[in-house]
Design goal:
Length: about 240
């Protein structure tokens, strides 16, 4: 998580295509080493296409200085060469931000991420901050999101088999969601009650001085990767 954070901070200071390419080649190397299918990584860009387009449009329409290469009819807006270059530059940088985050989620399990957060927030315990409860809440949220999605899909299919319809205009769709939300909330509260009883039966109270079945420890590879990331950051700023 630290190395990803350093890489993202370095990427935030990239202001030309050479610097973006420098970060992109490192990103490609990590994808190759991790043996993740490139199409699986690139799939994470799909939900953010609208953000890239908005960034491009904003730079095209709001950057009026420089060489004019076109005009938008009826709006009276001029498109400059610099605006186009800036829009592409910042859109690519946003795309690389998403890819770096995708690398973390695709190579690290949610439990490992929450364990790492518990280590990061450990110093705050001395200030009375309930860091363990916060991390536990994040763990449960990450754990039960797929379960709730699956439960919602089952309820929707059950409602469809009973003649419910989720088609029509916006008002009709909102009304048709109510028979879906109420059973889902009932299921959520039932699961929460079962989870609370299960945790209580295992003496999971307070969370003070708790230990982990799998102890995280630094090894030689961890130090090498961290040193390599620091070297990359220094080399980036020197270039």
């Amino acid at each position: 998580m630290v190395t990803i954070f350093i890489s993202i901070v370095v990427l935030a200071f990239a202001h030309n295509y050479i610097e973006l390419g420098f970060s992109f080649f490192l990103l490609c190397g990590i994808i190759f080493i991790s043996k993740i299918p490139p199409q699986l990584v690139l799939r994470n860009l799909k939900p953010f296409i609208w953000l890239f387009l908005i960034t491009l449009i904003f730079h095209l329409t709001l950057t009026s200085k420089g060489e004019i290469i076109g005009r938008i009819p009826y709006l009276g807006l001029e498109i400059s060469k610099e605006g186009l270059a800036g829009g592409i530059l910042y859109s690519v940088r946003l795309a690389e931000f998403v890819l770096w985050a995708a690398i973390l989620t695709l190579t690290t399990s949610p439990m490992e991420i929450t364990d790492a957060l518990d280590r990061f927030f450990a110093p705050l315990k001395k200030l009375g901050v309930p860091t363990h409860e916060f991390v536990l809440m994040m763990t449960l949220a990450l754990r039960f999101i797929p379960t709730l999605i699956s439960e919602a899909d089952k309820i929707k299919k059950a409602q469809l088999s009973r003649g419910a319809s989720f088609e029509g205009n916006i008002i009709q769709r909102v009304k048709s969601i109510i028979p879906l939300i109420i059973p889902l909330f009932i299921s959520v509260f039932r699961r929460a009650d079962e989870l609370a009883l299960a945790m209580d039966s295992r003496c999971y109270t307070g969370g003070k001085n708790r230990t982990s079945f799998k102890q995280l420890q630094f090894h030689l590879n961890d130090y090498l990767v961290f040193a390599g990331t620091c070297f990359y950051a220094v080399l980036f700023f020197l270039i």
